[in-house]
């Protein structure tokens, strides 16, 4: 098992306040993060709510960290499956731009099953952070 955290960084052509808003606004999150998101609040211990999309892998996420304007962390757990991981989004100003550092820890705690393969998370985050969020921000700020 690979116990290393998965880390990914991306620079966005948007001010940190705008990236934070889109990172923590329930309606925006449905667009770039998870369309199944039903309820979210950037408050420690808040439990995300998702619509039932029929998946066997139901998410049970909870906000673990908030540093207003800078850091959002949440658990990444699947109902009825062993394992617990955490995702942390950290924002850093770079002039008029924003650098986002994503860290996903605990991936090795999930079952040895193709659905939980590290490569799936790596590819997923590259899509979510490198494409979905980047394009969403571009459309919001243009």
UniProtKB/TrEMBL annotation:
A family per Pfam: AHSA1
Domain of life: Bacteria
Domain Activator of Hsp90 ATPase homologue 1/2-like C-terminal: 13-138
Transmembrane segments annotated in the record for this chain: none
UniProt similarity note: Belongs to the AHA1 family.
Record's protein name: SRPBCC domain-containing protein
Organism encoding this protein: Mucilaginibacter gilvus
């Amino acid at each position: 098992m690979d116990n290393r955290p998965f880390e990914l960084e991306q620079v966005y052509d948007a001010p940190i306040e705008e990236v934070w808003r889109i990172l923590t606004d329930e309606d925006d999150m449905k667009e770039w993060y998870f369309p199944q998101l039903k309820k979210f609040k950037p408050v420690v211990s808040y439990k995300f709510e998702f619509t039932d999309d029929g998946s066997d892998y139901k998410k049970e996420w909870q906000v673990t960290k908030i540093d207003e304007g800078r850091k959002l962390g949440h658990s990444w757990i699947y109902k009825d499956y062993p394992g617990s991981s955490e995702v942390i989004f950290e924002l850093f100003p770079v002039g008029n731009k924003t650098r986002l550092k994503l860290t996903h820890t605990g991936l090795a705690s999930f079952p040895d099953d193709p659905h939980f393969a590290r490569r799936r998370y790596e590819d997923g985050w590259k899509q979510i952070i490198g494409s979905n969020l980047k394009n969403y921000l571009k459309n919001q700020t243009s």
